[in-house]
Amino acid sequence: MSEPMIGERAFSRARRLLSWTILLLAGVSVALLAGLAASGMIAGTAPDETWAVRANVGETFGVLNAIFSGLALAAVVVTFWMQFTELRSQRAELALQRDSLIQTKAELHRSAEADLRHLHFDLVQLSIADPELAQVWPQVVGSPARHRQYQYANLIIQHSWLQLKISDYTEAELQSMLRYLFSSPIIREYWTTTKEFRQRILVTDSFEHRMTAVADEVCSEYEHLLRTHRPDPATPAWNGTAEVAEAA
Predict the structure, then answer these.
(1) In whole angstroms, what is the distance from residue 42 CA to residue 232 CA?
(2) End-to-end Cα distance, the chain
(3) Looking at per-residue confidence, does 228 or 156 come out higher?
């Protein structure tokens, strides 16, 4: 909620409170004037100031006092009611402001994370394009060609995870995406080779930790299918990826 809207609401409530106050003061004033007028009329009807007339005037002021007390009580009740309404409205506005701040913080976090991942992509792309820069990164495998493939596999996984993180994905979409990625033998090899490294850096209960757990299950599922559905190695036409895809 924007600050101008909050200011307009506060001004509207203040104006409404002022209107109620003016109405109450006007009611009390009218009651007092009516009582005084009634007393004057009663006193004016008597030829002389007898005790009976004074008694009637006293009774009139007693009625006036009761009316004034009732109006005062009504004013107190209305005041408390308006204060309660004002407090409830302020709490609602504070809740809206808190929700807005939380949403803004989450959006800024996602934006900063996307920028950081984009920088990571650029760094990995530089190492893929330049073998000398690739040597700067920790070597997971000895072969430079395989090392570049691992880096590219990492980019693919990071890109897919970022797509999931910024969208409302379902469990079925997550499983489908991971099964598609791990149909690649190189991605499965990269995932298995770097498992120990991931376990050292992942934060428990984070998004990456949850995604890693699901990815480990999918990768293990593929490896199990490869072992149980592998035909005779002498058969030249066997394709491991196709067999796994059909079994899945």
Answers:
(1) 123
(2) 49
(3) 156
Model confidence at 231, pLDDT cuts 50, 70, 90, reads low
Cα atoms in the Cβ-side hemisphere of radius 13 Å centred on 58: 7
- Predicted local distance difference test score (pLDDT) of residue 27: 66
In order of 45, 119, 145, 199, the CA distances from 202 in angstroms are 98, 20, 27, 6
How many alpha carbons lie under 13 Å from residue 182 in its C-beta half-sphere? 25
Per-residue pLDDT, 18: 63
pLDDT over 60 at 140, yes or no: yes
Q: Model-level pTM?
A: 0.52
Q: Is 196 helix (H, G, I), strand (E, B) or coil?
A: helix
106 vs 16, 114, 117, 118, 169, CA distance in Å? 37, 12, 16, 18, 17
Instruction: Kindly tell me the sign of the dihedral angle through the C-alpha atoms of 24, 25, 30, 35.
Output: positive
CA 179 to chain centre: 31
Q: What is the C-alpha separation between 147 and 193, in angstroms, rounded?
A: 11
Instruction: Specify burial of residue 105 (Cβ count, 10 A radius: 0-12, 13-18, 19+).
Output: exposed
What is the rounded average pLDDT for all residues in the chain?
A: 74
> How far is Cα 215 from Cα 182, in angstroms, rounded to an integer?
8
Read off the DSSP letter of residue 150.
H
Helix axes 185-193, 144-165, angle to 10 degrees: 90
Longest Cα separation, the chain: 137
Cα–chain center distance at 244: 41
Q: Are 150 and 156 in contact (CB under 8 A)?
A: no
